[in-house]
Amino acid sequence: MAGAKDIKRRIKSISSTRKITKAMEMISAVKMRRATESALSIRPYADRAMAVFSNLSLRLNGDEHPLLATRHASGKLLYIVISANRGLCGGFNANIVRNMRDAASGNVSRIDIVGIGNKGERALKKFGFNIIASFPEMIHTPTVERARPIVKMMLDGFTNGVYEKAVLVFTDYISTISSLPRTQTLLPVESDTVVMHPEVSKDAAALYTIEPDPLSVLDTVIPRILEMQIYHAVLESRASEESSRMVAMKNASDAAGDMTDSLRRSYNKARQMKITQEISEISAGRLALE
């Protein structure tokens, strides 16, 4: 058994760590509340906007607009991967990387990555993925304007035939203790990949009359919808990240508390053994003098 001094030193160290994790838990709780409010407030609009996009793709022929056309399975794939810029958030970043590796199915050479978040980007680079662009600042201050260069890169690559598909990989916020990595195809639109949350009712497939003509309207509408989808995905991922970090810090604080209690019991036991030994030595010395 370690000495009482060593145990006392460990108790002090773990108690200091617990103060840090407790403070990080409280900070994450505040950030999570803000991020959750932002994600939930925009969710109905983003879901319905993507549903409109999906309905348009079903009602119009692919040759009516190049962004609605299905490409042959010969080009490259563009993945927009949203992760975090920091760690200490449980399995949040690892789940995104695992989801991306599963989607690649070993065919890494066909995939280009646009990274939003440093952690996922660095991990994917280690696994051999080609990172063509990085937008870590969008995690700190997500805005629709920051999504525009990403959408422009995606649209240019798709219309020029460089990419046959553009896919968004993000973490969907479900609750404080639950989040789900998702993969959603942005281009071409596939109705079975459109994410619709339970609280947002699904409208029946609608018929659209497009004025003055489909090309001019869709040239404006489609980029705006794609910008909204990326912005919404970043908000969902931020809410999931802060929730995961809060839960991870809470678990760390609880574990530190349990470890401190266990060490205090060991410390008291060591002190009791030392006191008992000293009493025995005094009694033995007294008996020797009699």
- If strands are numbered along the chain, what order do they take across the biggest sheet? 3-2-1-4-5
Per the CATH scheme, the topology name is: Pyruvate Kinase, Chain: A, domain 1
Q: What's the helix count? A: 6
Largest sheet: 5 strands, mixed
First-last Cα distance: 35 Å
The gross shape turns out to be elongated
The second-level CATH architecture is 3-Layer(aba) Sandwich
Number of domains: 1
Number of strands: 5
Strand content of the residues, in percent?
Answer: 5-15%
Mean pLDDT: 85
Low-confidence stretches: none
Strand/helix succession: HEHEHEHHEEH
* The named CATH superfamily: ATP synthase, F1 complex, gamma subunit
Radius of gyration, in Å, reads 28 Å
CATH class: Alpha Beta
Family: Belongs to the ATPase gamma chain family.
Subunit structure: F-type ATPases have 2 components, CF(1) - the catalytic core - and CF(0) - the membrane proton channel. CF(1) has five subunits: alpha(3), beta(3), gamma(1), delta(1), epsilon(1). CF(0) has three main subunits: a, b and c.
Function: Produces ATP from ADP in the presence of a proton gradient across the membrane. The gamma chain is believed to be important in regulating ATPase activity and the flow of protons through the CF(0) complex.
Subcellular location: Cell membrane; Membrane
